[in-house]
Amino acid sequence: MKYIQTHQPVIEAANHIAAAIKHHLANGERVLWLLSGGSGTAIAIAASERLADTDFTNLSVTMTDERYGPLGHPDENWQQIMDAGFSAPGATLYRPLSGGDIASTAAAWGLWLTRTLDTTDFAIGIFGIGADGHTAGIKPHTSATAATRAIAAFTGDDFERLTITFPVIKRLDEVVIQASGDDKAAIIRELLAGHGALDDTPAQILTTVPDSTLYTTINQENIS
């Protein structure tokens, strides 16, 4: 995992993602882009702005995770990103929530994601890391850490959740991670050491992706 300390992690992460997507689309490749809610929203918006002049015909876009509920509910990651100004005209956009029950929603999303990955030339995702070691919606010590299907559905301590799983992350070509703040230092230290079990620290899976880059405000010398 490449470690980049910067005072502008969101901007640099957005520049990185936009450049990668533009390069692969310009080469005529089919690209899958996974968005992340929370702190990843600003990265997604900034990257889409930098891609404004790009032909999105071969681009597919969906989320890394979603909070289950009715379409457009206040905590829906997809709705929040769209309301914030994300735009990719001409791309294939997959909104995880469909108005169905949680099991059928997970199954439909998983089928779409698997088929898209099967026909994708380059897959990239935006990821954050929680102070508890989670990434996407994969919370420690939940059924999501043992899931073998593309999408896991479970009830967390805050939301009913839908998330991509370890098998999907392992199929990605590149991940761009943004994690900053003093509360993330211990988890980042654990990731760099590579000692964390996936059930304890799901974010450890990100270090297995062939091309992974962490953007952070934390000086590496302060956590080594």
Describe the structure.
The chain is an alpha/beta fold. The protein has a single domain, classed as Rossmann fold, CATH 3.40.50. Helix content is 29%, strand content 21%. It contains 6 helices and 10 strands. The strands form 2 sheets. It has a 7-stranded parallel sheet, sandwiched between helices. It has a 3-stranded antiparallel sheet with strand order 4-8-7. Strand 7 and strand 8 form a beta hairpin. Helix 1 packs across helix 2 (40-50). The radius of gyration is 16 Å and the shape is globular. The two termini are 15 Å apart. The relative contact order is 0.18. The model has no long low-confidence stretch (mean pLDDT 95).
Q: Please identify, by name, the CATH architecture.
A: 3-Layer(aba) Sandwich
CATH topology: Rossmann fold
Question: What structural class do helix, strand and pairing data support?
Answer: alpha/beta
What is the count of helical runs? 6
- In N-to-C order, the SSE pattern is EHEHEEHEHEEEHEHE
Main sheet specs: 7 strands, parallel
Order of strands, widest sheet:
1-10-9-6-2-3-5
- What would you report as the Rg, rounded to the nearest angstrom? 16 Å
CATH class: Alpha Beta
Strand content: 15-25%
Tally the beta strands.
10
TL;DR of this structure?
With 224 residues, the chain is of the alpha/beta class.
Secondary-structure map:
Blueprint: E1 2-5, H1 9-26, E2 31-35, H2 40-50, E3 59-63, E4 65-67, H3 77-83, E5 92-93, H4 102-118, E6 122-128, E7 151-155, E8 160-164, H5 166-169, E9 174-178, H6 185-193, E10 211-216
Parallel strand pairs: 1-10, 2-3, 2-6, 3-5, 6-9, 9-10
Antiparallel strand pairs: 4-8, 7-8
